[in-house]
Amino acid sequence: MIIVGMLACLAGVVYTFYVAQQEAGTESQFRVLANDMRVAQNDVVARARATTRGDAATFAQLAQDVSNFDAMLGDLDGAGIDGEVSRIQGNWQPIKDSAQLLVAAGDDITFIRGVSVDLESNIRPIQSEFAAVVDILRDENVSVDTIAAAQKTLWLTERIARNIDKILAGGEESQAAADEFRQDAANFNRTVDSLKNGDRVMGVQQLTDPDALDSINTASALFSVISASIDQIASSSEQMREVAGAREAIIESSPELTAAISNIVPALDRLNNARFFDRTTLLVLFGAPALLAVGLLIVMFRGQRRRVEYTEAGVEDINGALVKIAEGDLTVKVPEDNEVTADIAREINASTRRQRELIQNIRTPFEVSVDEINKIGKTARGQVDKGKQLTRSVVDSTTAATEMVRTSEEIKHSTAEAAKSSEQNRSRVERGYELTKDMSSASADVRESVQETSKSAKRQGELIQSVTNAAEYIQALNTKISVVAINTRIEAEKAGEYGRPFLGIAEAIGDLLREAEEEGRKIISEVRMLQNMSAENMESMENTVGTVVTILEYIERLDAALEEINDGSSSISSIIRSVDDAAGQSAVSAQHMNNSMAEIRERNVDIAEYSEFTQLGVSQLQSSMRDVADNLSQFRIEEGVANAAFDLKTSGEVEHVNGSPSQFDEAEMTALEDAEDNRASV
């Protein structure tokens, strides 16, 4: 009976330990699976944000991430936590549907983004070709409508590029942008055809100059990428709005899915406690025979003692590694030759490896951001200089208009001195013609400056997106460190007395997590502020472009009036007959031009204010980047290399953007006030 009792006790104990080991291994696999699901969810959100770039590889990776998450979700069916799995499925389904919608629209997004990039690279050559056509037409005897048609293509191309970006963004203005894009593209093609073949309805004469025809053909060939896909781009506005909605749905549903995944570990803990009590009952049933196996228990105790010592050695290695990790040294590697702690060691090594990769990936966007912010500062300073040049041109043009009005009055009141007035008028006409050329050149400089600023603003938007992705990587890093801290606490509770050193380490890791989360919130706040400032700056630039176009139209009218005055000065009799009409038309044109000059002055003041706002936003963004760099410098990611890899303070300072404290000096303001008084007297 004693032998039978000992064998029964031994069988019960062996069976109990076998079941415990099996269930512990299965629970460990499910915990690792929960961690992988959290990482896969973050990858899906990051890929969804990255689809705005139109990269075909991003859509393929997004489809693969969705498939991987589905596979991991299927592996949870045997975990015994059906309620948590059901909640994860309910929160995952909207994200999955939105991601599949993004993947289905991947070809269209890639195509439209490619067209936008091609047009952005071709817009400057297209405008240069048409600017050459305008210069040729000025030297030839053609109608004003012909010159105006050639100039119209300059701002049509800019508005077409902006509307394509709005369509791709899928906002509330996408449908209006699509309609305007279709109309502008048709007007561009019609204008090119009219310049080649002539159009009586539009008043456009057929071009015969070979150089002008070559320039038009070259520009038309560069614009062919748009002409061949007008309907496809315009009709995709509705799909782009759905894509934008799907992208927002993924971002909004992500926190709920994250919370559902986080509930897996507590559910496994509750399930583990229930199973533990079942095993305790089993041990009670075999407790009586165990009294007969004291000798066997002594042998087992000695074996267990050796296993405890073996475990203590592994725990000591993990303890030392975690202390170094808590101090910021991510180059440490935990030995994996201990069978008891091998799984924990592998998890810690994998976590530190991913942390090193993430921190290394964060470094590059920061360096690029600093370089691009310096470029933004230079562009803003150049914009202020262009504004000063425009101010001087406004003052000269206002003075010329005032002189022309005075000349018109003298012509009305003194027909007896027609011959002498003719010579004076001709000289003034020549001076006004030169001034209009200067004004046209200054307007072209302003348009180029606005284009450069627009490109810089677009690059700033991309940099903001890069910073947002970096913040998301930081959040993912925090999540992974949190998983390590949770696993450490769990293992510490299981280990009893031997696990107490882990509690202090877990608290240190928690402190680091709170600091990282605080810095992440600061970055997101600053990025949003910079996005708002960029939007305001873009709106001001669009208004400036419209004003410049209006100025060019008035300059054309003024040129026509000056040419009529010059032709009328050929004979005294012609001057006397047409003096009233010419003088009246000159006065009206001068009044319009003065009004336009006042509007340009107001726009120039607005641009100066926005430049100061841009300077403030750039300075705040750099401050936030420095704070993040200070926090990241606590981590060591390479053997024998100091943490200076993340010291971005010396990588480049943002150049100070000096806003113009005054747009007009004393002489310029006096000239403008005199012009207003003279215009009122006329």
TrEMBL record:
Biological process, per Gene Ontology: chemotaxis; signal transduction
Subcellular location per UniProt equals: Membrane
Q: Which GO terms describe its cellular component?
A: membrane
Query: Where would you find the membrane-spanning parts of this chain?
Result: 282-301
Q: Which PROSITE patterns match?
A: CHEMOTAXIS_TRANSDUC_2 (PS50111), HAMP (PS50885)
One example of the protein's molecular function in GO is:
transmembrane signaling receptor activity
Instruction: Decide whether keyword Transcription regulation is in the record.
Output: no
Alphabetically ordered keywords of this record? Membrane, Transducer, Transmembrane, Transmembrane helix
Domain named Methyl-accepting transducer is located at 393-601
Q: Where is the composition biased (Basic and acidic residues)?
A: 406-415
Predominant place of localization = membrane
In this record, what's one Pfam family?
MCPsignal
SUPFAM superfamilies from the entry? Methyl-accepting chemotaxis protein (MCP) signaling domain
Q: Which family does it belong to?
A: Belongs to the methyl-accepting chemotaxis (MCP) protein family.
**PANTHER family the UniProt entry points to:** LYSOZYME-LIKE PROTEIN-RELATED (PTHR32089:SF112), METHYL-ACCEPTING CHEMOTAXIS PROTEIN MCPB (PTHR32089)
Tell me the protein's name.
Protein PilJ
Organism, by scientific name, is Parahalioglobus pacificus
